Every structure is written in C-alpha cells, then in structure tokens.
Amino acid sequence: MLGISLRRPKTIAATLAAATLVTVLGSAAPHVYADGGVHPTPDPGHGDRPTVVLVHGAWADGSSWSGEVRRLQARGFEVQVAPQPSRGPSIDSGYLKDFLSTIEGPIVLAAHSYGGFVASDAATGNNNVKALVFVDAFAPDKGETVEELTAGSGSVLEPALTDPTSVFKLVPFPGAPEGAVDAYVLPKVFVPGFANGLPRRQAEVLAVSQTALATNALAEPATEPAWKTIPVWAVVGTEDRVIPPARQEEMMKRAGADITRIDAGHLGLISHPGEVTEVILEAARTTA
C-alpha cells in the first residue's frame, strides 16, 4: 500500500477532530460568536436535526467553510469540520470514516473539491449519512482517479498530467510512498485558476497559505461510491476552472444530484457562502 498505517484508533480520530474544530471554529462558548454575537437557540421539537459535517478540499483547510459554519450555527445546527490530511483517498477516507463513526444521529455530509472524492468513499456503509452535498467537487465512480477525471476537462490542473512542475511546486516529505511528493499549486495558477471571483488580495493570501496534497492522491482509485445509495445535492460554479462545469455536470447527473448552479469560480464556498448554505439546508430538510 502506501507504507503508512491506514487505520486510526477512534480515540485518536476523535482527538484530531477536536483539535481541528478548535482551530477552525475557535474556543467560544456554545451558541456565541467570537465577536460576542449570540446564536439563536434551536426551535423546540428540532432535536432530530442532522449534524452537518463539512469536508474541505485539497490545498485548503477547514476555514474554507467559515461562512457556511456561521450561517448553519445561526440556524441552530450542530456543525463539525472534519479532518482531511490530504495524503490520498485511502488514508483520507479512513480518517473521515472514523470521524463519522463518532457522530450519533443523522448526518448531512458536505464536501468541496477533492473532499468530494474522500466523502464519497468514507460515507459508504454509514447508515447515519442521510444526504451528500458536493460543492464544486469530484464524485467519482468505483475505480476512477483524480487524474482520469481531470484529463480532457480543460482544468487548469490538466497540464500537470504531462508536466507537473508547470502547475505545482514539488516538495519531498518524510515517510512518503515511493515516487510521491507534496504538491503546492503555483501562485500563477492558483490566483487566476482557483480563486477567480475573489478579490485579488484575498486570492494572493490563499495562494501562499495553502496546504499540500500528496501526489499519490491523484492516481489512487475510488472505492464503491456512497452516491449510489445516498441522496445527492450539488453546487456547480459556472466559472470553475479547476473542475470545469461540464465535467461536474457529468458526474452530478450520473449521481442523480439535485443541481444548483451559481455564478462563481472553484471557491464558491468562500465567495457565495449564503447560496451554498441554502443548498445544505435543503438537503438537511429531507432528513427531518
């Protein structure tokens, strides 16, 4: 396999999850914003509301979902931002699968970009996951890879399939599988390709604060996808240059998704959090 243990004890997964939530959401008391604003208390009789679990994509972290987290908490939903180490689908889906196993009751699982690949693998067989929401995301079928789904799509990542250094800065990391390195998207690709639709200054900050994706993640095949058995919603950015709209439409129609199209680039979860939140809420209503 990858020379790295793929299983994590649940106690470790829970500890990592807690650390992630503290980092992303802060240490404020329940129902209180960091700026002192108070969240509405959930309406009586809504104890069966699902937990919303958010999975970030590659070259990002959980703060990508900040806009959605604030809005969902304001509606009284429990929100958890899942760990996603970007080491490859087998490891990443293992982390997420263990994380989801600690949550009681119904779950709405929303994922962005590469996180869709991870979420679709991890949710299979978990009866608590009642809805999947793909936000500018991959929804692979069994055996498909990120490379395969990128090829021929017109993605800004496509040149990396023949010349990785045209898109990525490549950096070795300890314990890497043979031939694998960490990849960081070059700012000249990230700013116009990933962050189109965001203010230039914000795009430049995101370009230099990105996390890495191990290159083996691009070639690992998907397992049996959860979208074959769980209802699916999708948000498709019509200006997405990373997973172009035509490729997203193919995957989401295949998954039988209820599709919402927004005028946004690949980072629509940052530029249009209100619209993305509404789709998550629509999915949540079906679990009540």
* Main sheet summary: 6 strands, parallel
- Helix percentage: 25-40%
Give the tally of β-strands: 9
Strand content: 15-25%
Envelope shape: globular
Mean of pLDDT = 87
Helix tally equals: 10
Strand order of the largest sheet: 2-1-3-4-8-9
Oligomer state of the chains in this structure:
single chain
Helix/strand structural class: alpha/beta
**First-to-last CA distance:** 40 Å
Which consecutive residue ranges, at least 5 long each, have pLDDT under 50?
1-45
State Rg.
Answer: 18 Å
Order of helices and strands: HEHEHEHEHEEHHEEHEHH
Supply database-style keywords:
3-stranded antiparallel sheet, 6-stranded parallel sheet, alpha/beta
Describe the structure.
The chain is of the alpha/beta class. The protein has helices at 10-25, 66-74, 89-101, 114-123, 146-150, 187-194, 200-209, 245-254, 268-271, 273-285, and strands at residues 51-55, 79-81, 107-113, 129-137, 168-171, 182-185, 213-214, 232-237, 258-262. The strands form two sheets. Strands 2-1-3-4-8-9 form a six-stranded parallel beta sheet, sandwiched between helices. The longest helix is centred in the first third of the chain and has 16 residues, at 10-25. The termini are far apart. The relative contact order is 0.16.
In terms of topology, how is this protein built?
Layout: H1 10-25, E1 51-55, H2 66-74, E2 79-81, H3 89-101, E3 107-113, H4 114-123, E4 129-137, H5 146-150, E5 168-171, E6 182-185, H6 187-194, H7 200-209, E7 213-214, E8 232-237, H8 245-254, E9 258-262, H9 268-271, H10 273-285
Parallel strand pairs: 1-2, 1-3, 3-4, 4-8, 8-9
Antiparallel strand pairs: 5-6, 6-7
Helix pairs in contact: 1-3, 2-10, 3-4, 6-7
